[in-house]
Every structure is written in C-alpha cells, then in structure tokens.
Design a protein that fits this description.
The protein is an alpha+beta fold and 480 residues long. Helix content is 46%, strand content 11%. It is built from 19 helices and nine strands. The strands form two sheets. The protein has a six-stranded mixed β-sheet with strand order 5-4-8-7-6-9. It has a three-stranded mixed β-sheet with strand order 1-3-2, with helices on both faces. Helix 6 (77-90) crosses helix 8 (110-130) and helix 11 (178-187) runs parallel beside helix 12 (224-238). The structure holds zinc ion (ZN).
C-alpha cells in the first residue's frame, strides 16, 4: 500500500474525530464546505483524496489548524485500532486469503476491533517468520558447509545410490550419455520431456501424477548441464524428499541432489580408477578429469573434493572466485584460511590478492590451468586455477593442496610463487600509508551493487518457486 493511501485513512479518521467533537453530522459539515454528505463520507473512509482547498475549508469549519488535521497521529486509541485494521485489510497478505473486508462502524464493539487487529498482527508475524532473512540464509549455509567439512565432503549413501542407478542404466565407462540418463528415468517410471515453456522460476518440473520430468529444450548450449538437471530432478525422487519445512532443509536437499547428479555423472568407481592412476603417475589434473567425464571444470573440481580425502588420502581446498575477487563458493579441509565475516560466512568475502584464484586473472595464457605456490600464515599451498567467463563476468575455479601433496599433481614444478599475509590487512587490504595520507578525504568512489550470492528466496510452497506458474504449466502439459 502506498504511504499516501495509508495517510488518507488517518486523515479521514481525524476529520471524523473533530466532526464528532463538534457534534456535526456528515450533511451539516458537508453544507459548510460545499460537499454532499456522501462525498465527505468517502473522504472520512480514506477512499477519496480531498483537494487542498477542501481541506482548508474543512479545517476552518471545524475550527482547527490545517496542520492539526494533517497530523499522522491517530486521534484516539479506538481510531488507532480502526486505522490499523483498515491498513491490514488492504494488505495483499490478507487479500490473498480471499476473505471479506470488515467495515467497522460506531456500533462495532471495541473488543471485536481489538480481536481482529490482534489476528492481523499475528498473521503478519507468521508471514515474516516464514521468509528466510539473508542472515538466516547465511547461517544455514555456513552450518551446512561446516557439516560437510566434518564429513570430508563425502556422502557414502548417495555415492552408492548413484553407482547402483548408473550401473542399472547399462552404463559401462566414460561420460554418462543423455540416452543413459533417459534409461535411468524410465527405470524410475518417469519420462523426460523437453519443453520450451518451463516456468521462469524453475529448472525442472516433475509431474508426479503422469510421471514426467519436464526439462528445458535439449538443444541449449552446454548440454551436459541438461543431464545434470535431469539427474537432480530424479535425485529428489530417489532420496524421498518431501516439501522442505525450512530454508536449512531446502539447502540440504539442494546439496543432496547436486551430490547425486555429480556422483552419477562421475561415478565413484570409474572416477577413482581414473584419479588413482593419475595420482600414481603424478599427473593429477582437474582438466583431465573434466575432459574424461564430459563435465564442467567446476563440476570436476567439486567432485574431486568429494573423493580426495576419503579415497585418495589428500586434504584440499576448492574456490570459485569472481573477477573482482569475491568468493562465491568455497571448501577446505586442508587449513587454508578462507576469508570469513563475523558470522563465519565466507560467501561474498574477498580472497587475498596474492592467491592464485586472483592472480590467474592477470596471467596471459588462460587456455590451461595456472599453477602457483603461495606461502600463507597457515603454511605453503600449491594451487591450480582455471579461469572462465559467463554473461555475469569472469570467474576462476581453483583446487589446491598443502605443499607436501603437490607432488601428485601436474604443474608441481611451477616457479610461480607468492606470499600472502592475509588476514593481516597490511597484506593487500590497506593502502600504503604515504598513499593513503595523500588521498584520504579526496576520493569519492561509487560502489557497484553486489548481486548477493545468498539473497533470500521468495516464500511459497516451494522456496523460490512461483507455484501458480508451475500448476498452470502442469495443467497445460498434462492434457497433451
Ligand atoms: Zn592478502
């Protein structure tokens, strides 16, 4: 509701209050200001905006100052409740319930007004509680990251589930094909249907009545994303997910389906066979793993974090950093000191400028991985970074290990070295004192707005999804 509309409700109540004090009827006051009683009534009910000249006339007729008439305060306690009720009934939250508007008159008992207002307050409180605030979202995300760190980013149950599903689809070796993904869906009793009109707020929609999984058109570039999306949709079924009851549960389900899809595209046995051979030959490289399984560099790097500690006897870290140095995703169980905010959250924090995740952007040859040793207060790390770009800008994907484990990786002989003293701010966050004394108070930069990584999802039956669109979509397709 616009503040203007809400002010009109207060204004109307103030006019009615002063009119009552003067003992005037609507028609009597109307006569004095040249308005029909019915028009004055509309103004008192906040449904018509009076002209300034009318207001001046009304103020004069009631013997009050115009400023007094325009005050934003309710004239008395009952009026305050009535104003609050009128506003609440105009709120879309109430409108969505499809219930009638209650018109309060002089004869309405005070207890009835108090009761209605109390219910509206509770409705508003519950609605705001259901929406995950950015703080809640960040906290849930941090807790999940810590949980996965404790588990070395490894989930044996989902590994086994994916392995069984992939084997049953007839897959033998190499990259999982679209055909094999379809077979997996068929075994679950679902058919994969590619459509052009998926609701904007969804990545896929599953019709549980007609057993169909709707996906975006098969012809979109980078079709490997499509296999992953189909697998994620199947993951919800296979893992028995119910509608998430909280934001934390929503994130947990997301993590599980992503894990399932990755474990199906890069099955444990085949991946370990590939990675163990590479390790033995001291030729480990994310780019090779990526190419062998036909996935993105990021997917391969993340998959390595699932298997490295539990099966390859390595600790490691993973970073996805944007062109401006902000951390979008991060994982470590090797002690690399990730930048954190006061809540322990890492997303959106800037990583050290000396780290390979950032220095790779300035490196000229970007077709292959960039390798670097970095001395940090927590020891020396070796990192391999691959840069890329999307419509949203540049990004880098890094995987790294403590110095002693670099010997298994291609690129270990790099002569590229850097020293990082972060979180000490004099490392790369604080300008040199002679420079800052020259410029302090003489610069006015304008910040670029950060599209936040963890903005809260709109509330709804499914977080972040417009269910009306989804149901309409299913209606349209179920008839086919
Ligand atoms: Zn630094």
């Amino acid at each position: 509701m616009s503040p203007q509309a809400s002010d009109l409700i207060t204004l109307g109540h103030r006019i009615r209050h002063f009119r009552g004090e003067r003992g005037l009827t609507l028609d009597q006051l109307g006569d004095r200001v040249g308005l029909a009683g019915s028009q004055l009534s509309l103004i008192e009910n906040g449904r018509r905006e009076p002209k300034l000249s009318t207001l001046q006339d009304v103020a004069a007729a009631l013997g009050v100052d115009l400023a007094d008439l325009l005050s934003r305060d309710a004239p008395n306690t009952r009026a305050a409740l009535e104003i609050e009720l009128a506003r609440a009934q105009k709120n879309p939250l109430y409108g969505a319930l499809g219930l009638p508007q209650v018109k309060v008159t002089k004869g309405t008992p005070l207890a009835a007004v108090e009761s209605l207002v109390g219910l509206h307050r509770e409705l508003a409180r519950r609605a705001s509680e259901a929406i995950a605030t950015p703080e809640e979202a960040r906290r849930a995300n941090t807790e999940l990251r810590e949980l996965m760190r404790d588990r070395d980013n490894y989930m044996p149950d989902i590994e086994q589930l994916a392995e069984d599903q992939v084997r049953a689809s007839g897959h033998v070796s190499g990259a999982l094909t679209h055909r094999e993904v379809s077979v997996m869906a068929e075994r679950l009793g679902f058919s994969l249907i590619y459509v052009n009109d998926l609701p904007n707020s969804t990545r896929s929609v599953t019709d549980l009545v007609n057993h169909r999984i709707y996906l975006p058109p098969a012809s979109i570039p980078g079709g490997h994303g499509l296999r992953s999306m189909a697998l994620q949709a199947m993951g919800h079924r296979l893992l028995g997910h119910e509608r998430p009851g909280s934001y934390a549960e929503f994130l947990w389900q997301r993590l599980q389906i992503n894990y399932f899809a990755a474990a199906a595209l890069m099955p444990r046995e085949a991946s370990l066979s590939f990675l163990s051979t590479a390790k033995r030959e001291r030729e480990l490289a994310v780019e090779d793993f990526r190419d062998a399984f036909g996935v993105t560099h990021e997917a391969a790097a993340l998959r390595l974090t699932n298997l490295a500690t539990s099966h390859l006897d390595m600790t490691l870290h993973f970073l996805r950093v944007t062109g401006d140095g902000a951390l979008q995703k991060g994982y470590e169980n090797d002690g690399l000191p990730l930048p954190v905010d006061v809540t322990g959250s890492i997303e959106g924090q800037y990583v050290c400028k000396q780290w390979s995740a950032r220095s790779a952007f300035t490196h000229t040859n970007r077709t292959t991985e960039f390798y670097q040793y970095t001395d940090t207060p927590a020891g020396t790390f070796w990192c391999a970074t691959q840069t890329g770009a999307t419509d949203a800008g540049e990004f880098s994907i890094s995987v790294g290990v403590p110095f002693a484990q670099a010997k298994w990786f291609r690129g270990r002989e790099t002569t590229q070295r850097a020293v990082s003293r972060c979180p000490d701010e004099t490392c790369c966050r604080r300008p040199a004192s002679e420079v800052s004394s020259r410029w302090v108070g003489k610069a006015w930069p304008s910040a670029r707005l950060h599209a936040h990584v963890l903005s809260p999802l709109p509330s709804g039956t499914f977080p972040g999804v417009d269910d009306t669109e989804v149901y309409e979509f299913l209606e349209a397709h179920a008839a086919e």
